[in-house]
Amino acid sequence: MFLSSLAASWIYNSFLSSLENEKTQGDLLCKALRVEEHSMKKYRILNRRSQAVFACSILSDGVETNEDFDAERMLSLFIPNRTRVWSRWRAKVGRELKYIGTKKSFQATGEDREGLGEEECRLLNTFLGDAQRAYDSYRTRFDELRSLYRGSSEIWDAKDV
Questions:
Q1: Which of 6, 41, 83, 157 lies 20 to 30 Å from 16 when distance is taken between CA atoms?
Q2: For residue 94, which of 75, 112, 113, 121 has the smallest C-alpha distance?
Q3: pTM tops 0.85
């Protein structure tokens, strides 16, 4: 009994110390980057594919040429699955994110569905629907931020530390 309570205590303390380390590391990063706590926004995105599209939308925004940002490669780093559906999803989302305009359509075309079974097509449509919602959410947030900072004299200047 004593040994089991000792083991449970050790596991609990390890868990608590890992939480503290994460907070300490986050605080150090914010301090090094000179980021104030109230200036950050936290988003809750429910699945990895939506998180990947949201992050790639941020990273690709303002990129002048297709060569500057390889969206499909970035998506494969977020989601390394190598199935046919995931490969088609990455290809489609990558093409849309490289498209310079703000109106992007993540609807599967006949070419995207070619050679896939019925269940795989349904899965691809689900994945692309998530991509569309993530991109639309990003555009909404981006437009809100742009309207907040329009006319603001505050410019962030990166400096070597």
A1: 41
A2: 75
A3: no
